[in-house]
Amino acid sequence: MGSNRKDQTDTYEHNFAVLERIADALNKDEIGIDDLLVKTREALEAARRCMEILNRQRGEFRKLENEFAQLIQDSESRTPNHENDEEGEAQEG
Fold first, then answer.
1. Cβ–Cβ contacts within 10 Å for residue 57, how many?
2. Digits of tens for pLDDT over the chain (93 positions)?
3. Closest Cα to residue 49, out of 23, 17, 26?
4. Residue 31 belongs to what H/E stretch?
5. Is the CB of residue 15 less than 8 Å from the CB of residue 53?
6. Which residues contact 51 (CB under 8 A, 6 or more apart)?
7. How far, in Å, CA of 74 to CA of 62, rounded?
């Protein structure tokens, strides 16, 4: 059960919700000076986790993009180019 909580706190959605909650509390003046430092640290850590997750996913998306590009390139190189065949026949004829 502890690992489930760890997994949840490691998500972008959880960390973004932390940021939203703290920002909302600040906007409503619900955070007193005694809690401000703690909440600022909490917000910083949540923002750091969000950025780490986004950067990791950006890298994964780049890998997928490269794989798709390679798949398309491989597919195009295996497909006979009938246009060139027709042009060759027209020039010969």
1. 11
2. 444 555 777 899 999 999 999 999 999 999 999 999 999 999 999 999 999 999 999 999 999 999 999 999 998 888 766 555 555 555 555
3. 17
4. none
5. yes
6. none
7. 18
For residue 6, what are the CA distances in angstroms to 9, 10, 12, 33? 5, 6, 13, 29
9: three-class secondary structure by DSSP: helix
Kindly report the number of other CB atoms within 10 A of residue 49's CB atom: 19
- Tell me the H-state helices in 28-93: 33-78, 82-92
Number of domains composing the chain: 1
Q: Where in the sequence is the domain holding 16, given as residue range(s)?
A: 2-92
